[in-house]
Write a structure and sequence with these properties.
Length: 110
Amino acid sequence: MALAEGVLGIIEEAQRRQGFAQVCAVRLEIGALAGVEVPALLFCLEIVLTHSVARQARIECLPVPGSGWCMDCAQTVSIATLYANCPRCGSAQVQATGGLQMRVQDLIVE
Ligand SMILES: [Zn+2]
């Protein structure tokens, strides 16, 4: 629910700055390692946005793949979970670097 309220906060702030009448679509980037359950997030957003300028908005979720820095390979590798081993060398010395966040990428307004 906190995530959905954060999205609402971003929409309200954008609305104050730009003064649009309504939001048609909200594009969310959802990192594979962010621990976001998309169905739960969509459910919360539906409730939170009911009385906002985004009540009609279509929610688009754009997945962002997880990536990490393998210290043994000294390069960026793709990982599916936060504490995954390196897919190249099997090392556990992988620091997650990408796909860690959920963020509002774009608002389509009118
Ligand atoms: Zn490696």
